[in-house]
Backbone:
């Protein structure tokens, strides 16, 4: 148990000193456009890093939000392969790594952040990548911990087999 706490503490300290090289947004339904709007504001604070949106809102909405915010569209990387939280990470992790990205700002809604961190730690961590969580405020209650456990197990299975379980996962 002590090694786990030491490891977790080291990860927490490391995340404060490593400057993210990209923004990774975990998209959702159209009603969750708040993630994209929030990211457009954050992008102004970090004008030289690319923005990756995984499974986000339809491209026309996303592009319009960033255009209206004055964000160069060449910074946007829209990926629609993901169908759930696990695949938000598994479909992009190797692409991010191939571009030399070792650390990202992880953007998702506050109610979803626990699950995103569990999966991110497993998937991104497996490639030596770090992330700094930046939750988007919402009025929603945090998701049940069972979703974090379920998707954490799925991420571990992906590491071992390459299978995400997305076709059989319950996505709610």
Residues:
């Amino acid at each position: 148990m002590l090694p786990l706490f030491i490891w977790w503490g080291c990860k927490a300290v490391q995340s404060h000193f490593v400057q993210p090289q990209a923004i990774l947004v975990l998209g959702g339904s159209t009603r969750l456009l708040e993630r994209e709007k929030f990211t457009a504001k954050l992008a102004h604070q970090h004008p030289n890093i690319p923005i990756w949106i995984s499974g986000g809102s339809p491209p026309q909405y996303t592009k319009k939000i960033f255009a209206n915010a004055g964000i160069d569209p060449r910074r946007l990387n829209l990926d629609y392969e993901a169908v759930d939280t696990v695949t938000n990470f598994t479909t992009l992790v190797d692409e991010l790594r191939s571009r030399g990205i070792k650390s990202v700002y992880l953007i998702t809604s506050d109610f979803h952040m626990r699950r995103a961190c569990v999966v991110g730690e497993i998937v991104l961590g497996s490639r030596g990548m770090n992330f700094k969580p930046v939750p988007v405020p919402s009025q929603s209650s945090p998701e049940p911990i069972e979703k974090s456990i379920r998707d954490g197990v799925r991420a571990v299975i992906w590491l071992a087999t390459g299978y995400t379980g997305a076709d059989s996962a319950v996505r709610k």
